[in-house]
Design a protein that fits this description.
mainly alpha; about 85% helix; globular
Length: about 500
Amino acid sequence: MSDTHQDANPTDATLFDKFRKLGRHGVVYGLGSSIRQLAAFLLIPLYTNALSPAEYGVVGLVTLVGLVAGVVFEFGLRTSLFRSMSDHKDEATKNAVFSTALLLTAFGGLLLTGASFLLAPKISMAIFDHTDHSRLLIYVCATTAMDLLSRMALAMLRAQERSAWFTVLQVATLLARIGAIVYFVVYRSMGVEGVFLGQIIAMGASTLLVLFAVRRSIAFNFVARDAVAMLRFGAPLVMAGLFTVVLEFVDQLFLEAYGNLSDVGIYTLAYQIGRILSFGLHTPVRLTWTPLFFAVKDDDNLKPFCAKALTYVYAVGGMLFLAVALLSKELLVLMSEAEYQAAYPLIPIVAFSYLLWSGQPIIEAGVLIRGRTGWSAWYMLFGAIVNVALVWVLIPAYGVYGAAAATLGSFGATHILSMIINWRLFPIAYEWSRLALVFLVQAAVFGTGIYAASPNLWWSITCKVGLILCYPFLLWAVGFFRRDEIIGMRRLIDQAKGRKSN
């Protein structure tokens, strides 16, 4: 094995060390962030048994309002925080920058909560044609305001690489949210209102815990220069975030307008399951990539690092995509009532859309390194326009299937345009042949899994799980893995066994 290790050149070794760090923190932060967002998935059996599809549709639309509010009133500060902190070396100055961001976030949360009392009846009338859900909208806005503070504090934990605290606090948030919602929906029989009442109580408790964890980093300083810099850097990200929400969720509003709340409920369920790729892959990549990218942005091998990172994300993410896409039918049978089974054909489409989207944080290397975040807003605007056009054409004709097709089409169009813009800002030679292999193998496994489906539930699960486990071996068989990667994996195995590499 000694001669094999000597064949690895220093650049490959350095790259592998970076990916090991990316993978290690990605697993930790990925688990933590997945735990935080896992509540929506774990609560699906509760929602699909305690709520009708129409009531679930109300949950989806009210939650959408909270997402929009969160994007606007966060001011793009979480991403700006990492950039501003990377410009300072001493701990005291970093704490002052964090405190400034936290104060700005608190101000945004207060504005959001106050605005909700004034605007909730009008928003409810605009979406539902009545004001009966005004209280739900106030609940979701107050929950979002506290969540903004919590996320900013969690961003500081990430910057400090306090991954253990990060994960513990995410677990606490998960348990609090599930426990509160189960109590109000099941034991108090409060239906949809119980969902949002449980969320606001759980978020209040978890926000206090997270702020307590970062109390020593709160300097109660407000640095005007850094505040202006962060707001200036984050302003285009707010627009990009709004366009992202349109890109992801405007189809629910069109479904409500051209269909009914039951259609919204079915599509919301498909989206919740398909979005496992979001919190299981995209979110961990984004949370880990941003601070790591700024930490290594001056390295000579940054471009090959970015190229390989994109390849790895799609290769590793393919395993999760196949699991979601192939096992979703059996999952629905086990988790939900028969009226929700129509969501099954939509899930692979949504899941693949989010597999593509998982590479977006890496593709945006150009706007990050050049500080040209305004471009993010432009290509997200393009994606939003494409999505609106597609749903306007497809939903009246094809209903929920048109909504899923519009999601895939608009995600793909945005992905291509953002890659072109970022390449012009910061040219990267991506590994196109290896990416093609990844997607071809995924297509082969998915097609075989659909063909191998059986009327017997447990036999179907067994066959599909076996196919999914074959995926990495098929990648190896078609020559996807390169020599330096195999060497790196052997090093990891040696270290795991407690042996030094020869």
